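User: Just a sanity check before I run the rest of the batch. Below are the structure tokens for the first item. I only need the designed sequence back.
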């Protein structure tokens, strides 16, 4: 399915002011494919790499010709894949095109990196404009890293973080995974011990889920992790990270004061974001779409002045409110219910408020001072609670 830029533009023309927008760039290549990964990625080769560079620049330029009058970009996130395979000069060129083509006041520019990325590029990335690194550590237990099919070691992660600091990076996130077959109590102790030593600004802890469509399914089936074990791992990390000085602000995310991820908050706070690259998602105003996860249709569509998409939705008022509630309830701050009702004055919230009263009485939701939240102890069943509220 192809969507023209003019069609997107027509939906934005009625907005009274420019939308403060985050930019996501999907780099779809890796040196090897992790067996648990669901994201669109391919094994890198030079031809595909240079094709991506050529088309991503065309996509930015084509999009800006139609949408730059409606947006101000303030965050950029290079995700993947393994975007740390991009050289500093390539990142600098992409950022230069973005800031030349869109009104910009960039506050946070994130690069996802693997610990086995080239340390000699760190200073170059910093000079190119990157001011936040998200490091795919996954674990500090080398035995678990082997189970996950990762290429790096725990010591390599520690070395990379040290070198990143020396290159001037203060805002560093470490991604960890929990609920992995073969994990032991010692795994958690090692992870927390090293986190206490590294004292990075931000930590994300993701429970391993959705193994049906990936090669890791066979590992899971031979040594499955029960729901009770998942709950124990989640509670352990929650407790120990809080003791280490991290504030939980989203189901899977913890930060030192002042270091919440500004780009990812756009997703949870239902703010605009614009995605470039195959499989990248976008949300602008009442529009939501996702580029096709395909390296063939993506370039041909851009060359014809359009986007190749899998989904293109024009959200009505009810759907926008439902999505805003669903994403917002992932945050510890939850949803400002009073503000939401003022923002959508024409909508009848009585049906929601009846369900909220029921869920509050069950302890599944809390409504205090107009702030609607899921209690922290219920975060692991957040999806079920959100479903009960919305459907």
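Assistant: Here's the designed sequence for the first item:
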């Amino acid at each position: 399915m192809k969507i023209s830029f003019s069609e997107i533009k027509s939906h934005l023309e009625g907005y009274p002011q420019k939308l403060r927008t985050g930019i996501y760039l999907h780099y779809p290549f890796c040196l090897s494919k992790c067996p648990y990964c669901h994201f669109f990625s391919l094994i890198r080769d030079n031809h595909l790499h240079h094709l991506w560079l050529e088309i991503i620049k065309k996509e930015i330029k084509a999009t800006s010709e139609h949408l730059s009058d409606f947006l101000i970009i303030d965050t950029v996130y290079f995700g993947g894949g393994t975007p740390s395979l991009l050289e500093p000069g390539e990142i600098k060129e992409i950022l230069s095109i973005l800031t030349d083509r869109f009104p910009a006041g960039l506050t946070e520019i994130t690069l996802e990196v693997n610990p086995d990325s080239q340390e000699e590029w760190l200073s170059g990335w910093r000079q190119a404009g990157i001011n936040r690194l998200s490091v795919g550590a996954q674990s500090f237990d080398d035995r678990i890293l082997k189970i996950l099919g990762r290429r790096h070691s725990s010591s390599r992660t520690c070395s990379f973080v040290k070198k990143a600091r020396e290159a001037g990076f203060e805002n560093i996130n470490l991604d960890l995974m929990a609920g992995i077959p073969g994990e032991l109590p010692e795994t958690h102790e090692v992870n927390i011990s090293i986190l206490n030593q590294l004292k990075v600004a931000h930590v994300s802890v993701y429970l391993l889920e959705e193994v049906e469509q990936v090669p890791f399914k066979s590992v899971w089936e031979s040594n499955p992790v029960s729901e009770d074990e998942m709950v124990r791992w989640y509670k352990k990390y929650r407790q120990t990270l809080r003791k280490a000085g991290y504030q939980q602000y989203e189901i899977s995310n913890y930060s030192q004061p002042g270091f919440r991820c500004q780009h990812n908050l756009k997703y949870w706070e239902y703010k605009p974001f614009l995605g470039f690259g195959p499989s990248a998602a976008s949300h602008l105003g009442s529009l939501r779409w996702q580029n096709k996860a395909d390296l063939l249709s993506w370039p041909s569509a851009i060359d014809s002045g359009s986007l190749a998409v899998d989904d293109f939705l024009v959200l009505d008022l009810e759907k926008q409110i439902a999505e805003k509630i669903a994403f917002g309830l992932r945050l510890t701050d939850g949803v400002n219910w009073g503000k939401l009702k003022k923002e959508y004055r024409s909508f009848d919230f009585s049906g929601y408020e009846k369900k909220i009263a029921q869920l509050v009485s069950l302890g599944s939701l809390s409504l205090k001072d107009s702030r609607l939240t899921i209690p922290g102890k219920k975060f692991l069943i957040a999806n079920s609670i959100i479903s009960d509220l919305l459907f």
